[in-house]
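Example 3.2
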Amino acid sequence: MANQNLSNAKTAKNDEFYTQYADIQKEINAYLDYDPHVFRGKTVLLPCDDPEWSNFTKFFAQNFELLGLKKLISTSYAPESKNYKIPYQPTLFETVQPYYSPDKTKTHGKIFVLERDITGDNRINIDDLEWQYLEGDGDFRSKEIRALRDEADIIVTNPPFSLFREFVAWLMEADKKFIIIGNMNAITYKEIFPLIKENKMWMGNGFQSGNAYFRVMMLKEYANGVYDSETGLVKFRNCCWFTNLDHGRRHEPLRLMTMAENFKHSKHKEIRGRKEYIKYDNYDAIEVPFTDAIPSDYEGAMGVPKSFIDKYCPEQFEIIGVAEGDSGKELGLKPFDRELKKLNPSLRDGQLYYKENGIPKKPYARILIRKKQ
């Protein structure tokens, strides 16, 4: 149900999800552990942000000197341009400024810049943030924000779920380093998967135990266990970090058992006790329904769950492709004939299948991989 709510939010363009400070800190620390100087001398842009409320701005502003940043830029989107309009109350931080405008605060985005000590305490931190209204509404696709993108070295944000494809294209267009949040399902998008396959984009370090907790500005209906009324947080299991910055976990190979060991010791009843792995009828590969059941001694192609990408080590495996729709057809998965579809109407062209007791069955979305030689 949590994943469905995330999907519904994407469809309805309800993109107001605010990331927790601890989650940002945990993710950024993973890159610092791998390269302590990764942010040093860099300009960081936080677009799609709301600097007065956002923990992204707070984290990078509070750690400006520790990270060795050159400049921090954060931009917000005008309240009246948002799909979900809620009563907007400007903060004291905004209203005390002589250039505050009751009209502009609704129709214009804002830009916050941190690059110098303006308080005179010989430190650069959150107290030194300077802001102005943008010329436009702050849409990342505008010429104004594109110019900021081009100035930046690293872009970090939780972009609108409904515009994830477009936002990634916006990043790739400028060949920028980035750390962003998205839906795990995005890995199978035709615009996203080729980037993962070509090692131009990969999974970040990840949320704690795979659960992401967001604060929401507009409360919708959520299932039990999804929204916590005490904390005001919504939990999603299907969110992840995407990046093209290196981190240590990405290079940790999976510890796997041999095929024989899986048949004897696997914790999965679908694997334990078998004599061989299921083979697909329409592609020369075996079905591996669990990432930890990938046999270490198999040299051929394997169909694995899309969650494998979170454990993918490029030194250990190579990605062949994704068996979904047009991508599956490009891999050579032939269209299903009418007789097969009569036996299983859920069959879709471009997907893998195997027969069980004469009935064609299709696994959930599979990524095809093989062991690196």
